[in-house]
């Protein structure tokens, strides 16, 4: 028990130096926790936006639709009763809605802009998506109506307001040009910038005739589950059922499979976090090596006396390692405390992305807008704290052995 006491006494012998090195470790832990919280919050919001406004948890379509970026109308189908039954029997199933997407140009006054038109069933669509909750003007689609909903960014570009007239110019299923006209009935401001700029919505029952298609056809079925983790597990099971026992020509993708860019961003974000933390910890490790070396040089006589009194090299190494471990514990606790305070602010008050990125979120490919909130990740606190202590201990081994191998007589009479 006396070895830890000696280590604790020596640790605070040079308190200024101790807290400088501990401060470097604390900064590494604090930075790692905040960056991890920021990335986790960004990913949580990004995936949530894609699920709530674009892909849903699961989407079912012809395989060619996911491989072909040309005309979505080439890959329409009529869902069978057996297919809908299998979807509704999925564990964790919440709701499903048919969707018919196609490309068009929207014309308003003298302006023209390319968009994706999403033809939807108003009732079931609101059970799967959260679009209706983000209407800032007007009302949602009504069955059989020619009304159109556009995003706020597109409305600003085309200078459209609720009640203004629009024209959609598109190619119907046979390849002929056709148009639809009507009024803008709603303007939405979603936290997904792509939906605010590049997508308009219209009632499916109204538009199918103009497309030269049967009223029952869709090119995607969007399915909402109780949570996104259940969706990933069930998407493969559903595809096996549809292509196996039912013999359907169908592909089932979960939200994660249609978010390749975000998945890659999530992985690279973690790599970047650990790389930056490793650099900071390396600086801390160099500082700890210097602390141990300076401490041993200052205490040459003391080391000699300890060896003369019978302490072995291993015990002396243990003393220096305990001192270094104490530096790691102090730095880790301070860093974890500051990280907890920063995470609390992120979780409860969030970060205004408008202030951070300005108008650049869409150009950066990040599907988020508004205020982003952090996420508590207790495992990160434990991991980074343990890393700080481990780096401190490992950094002390070589200089501690150098100090412990001094001859006791030379050490006592080193002057």
Order of helices and strands: HHEHHEEHEEHEEHEHEHEHHHEHEHH
Percent strand: 15-25%
Helix content: 40-55%
The total tally of domains equals 2
Helix-and-strand structural type: alpha+beta
Shape: elongated
Radius of gyration: 31 Å
User: How far apart are the termini?
Assistant: 32 Å
Largest sheet: 6 strands, mixed, barrel
Mean pLDDT: 81
Number of strands: 12
What is the gist of this entry?
This protein has 415 residues and is α+β, with helices and mostly antiparallel strands. It contains 15 helices and twelve strands.
What features would you describe in this structure?
- The protein has 415 residues and is α+β, with helices and mostly antiparallel strands.
- The chain folds into 2 domains: 2-50 and 261-412, no CATH class; 57-254, no CATH class.
- 54% of the residues lie in helices and 18% in strands.
- It has helices at residues 2-11, 15-55, 63-67, 81-88, 122-128, 152-158, 193-198, 204-207, 228-243, 260-298, 300-308, 313-349, 353-357, 378-404, 408-412; strands at residues 58-61, 93-108, 111-120, 135-138, 148-151, 165-171, 177-188, 199-203, 220-225, 251-254, 351-352, 371-372.
- The strands form 2 sheets. The protein has a 6-stranded mixed beta barrel with strand order 2-3-8-5-7-6.
- α2 (15-55) runs antiparallel to α10 (260-298) and α10 packs parallel to α14.
- It is elongated and about 100 Å long.
